[in-house]
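During the reporting period the student researcher (J.K.) took over the structure-prediction task from the postdoctoral fellow and processed the backlog of single-chain submissions. One of the processed entries is reproduced below for the supervisory committee.
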Amino acid sequence: MPSPRLPLEEMTLRQLRKVASEYEVSRYSRMRKTELIAAIQAIDAKRSLGTATTATPSVPAAVPTTVSTAVPAMASATVAPTPVYTAPTPPSVEVLATVDEGLADLPSGYGESRIVLMPRDPQWAYAYWDIPHTHKDELRRQGGSRLALRFYDVTDMDLLRQTPHSLQQYECDEMAREWYLPIPVSDRDYVAEIGYLCNDGRWLVLARSLPVHIPPVYPSDWVEDHFLTVDWQADLRGQTLITLKHPSQRAAESANAIYDEVYAMTQSTEAQRVAGSLFGSMQHVPGSHVPGSMAPEKAVSSYVFPSGAGLWAVPGAAPGAMAGVPTMSGIGAFSGLTMSGAGLTMSGAGFSASAPPIRPRKFWLVADAELIVYGATEPDATVTIGGQPIKLNSDGTFRFQMSFQDGNIDYPIMAVAADGEQTRAVHMTFDRATPSRHTNTKDEAVLEWLP
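J.K. obtained the following structure tokens:
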């Protein structure tokens, strides 16, 4: 008799798949552990129900022997037997125990110092790391005393050459392998470091993550919906159906389209103006008026100025009386117009016939400030600024440069001799305020129509 089966909840995923294959569960390899348990239990319940329905009913002790003699001769009907479900025998404990044989346990580490930073949402980021004990022991021998995480804002900068915009520090336990980090400002790029803090202010790095972008807490203004009908049998591998465009690019293309339309209109009216001027200058030439053509007073009924604005005559009006001249906006009109030959006199609002068509143009400005701290000490000394070690040049000079943002910057500067016996320090604070800002980069510049 086979040994009883292990409880389903205590089986591994591979063992559950083994049982499901014996039970002929459809697509068991794609199921999760809970789904496999539910499918196996359903088959067990069905098997128990089939066993109960096929039990032999009890036979009474005494059966009447009365026989009726008036039974007509009838053919006996054949009744098909009810099919009985028979589930396969589940694998024994010995069989299930061999499923995981030969599989080694997962290692506690992989021998490489590594930290990974991932955004969870606009308010939190998640970091996990794997640091070998040998690497930790080495940095402890160098003076590392407290394990900590550092969280840098590295938006639009290189951390290897520049100082981060901001720094948050969190001391953590030696046994910790993961940490949740609060986000100071969303829609920025961040880097995480894990390392040791030294009692003299030095920072020894164990591992540094790649930069990640934290999504903004506000909804995106990029809304671009496209609806496509794709054939079910179409091969979409390597195909590009829609190329999305940034809102600034769409705005620039829209402005260019408007300008092209207006400029095309001015080009067509310019051609009409040249033709009208040529015809008007020939009015004094004998024979230039062709019989059957329009009257001289109607020849200037559609005169267009070089700026693109035109004059239109009212049908039936007196010669020289114009309905009005639209302004560049298309809604204004001039009054008191007279025309004599090729001359034109206007009164009322001013008008510049020689002004070129208005074209949109881009404009941009970038301005900011940086803070530079410099000095010198003994070449073998250790210098920290705000608790962060600074690399000295061969002659002992140093230069520290960072972005100077609004607010207060508190920078204690300390130099420690190589033997740790002597120290020198200076404490500096800096304040910056930007009352107003109306700037944009060259890439953010869009076409603007001037009034």
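The committee noted the following: Confidence is low (pLDDT under 50) at residues 59-76, 281-353.
J.K. will present the remaining backlog at the next meeting.
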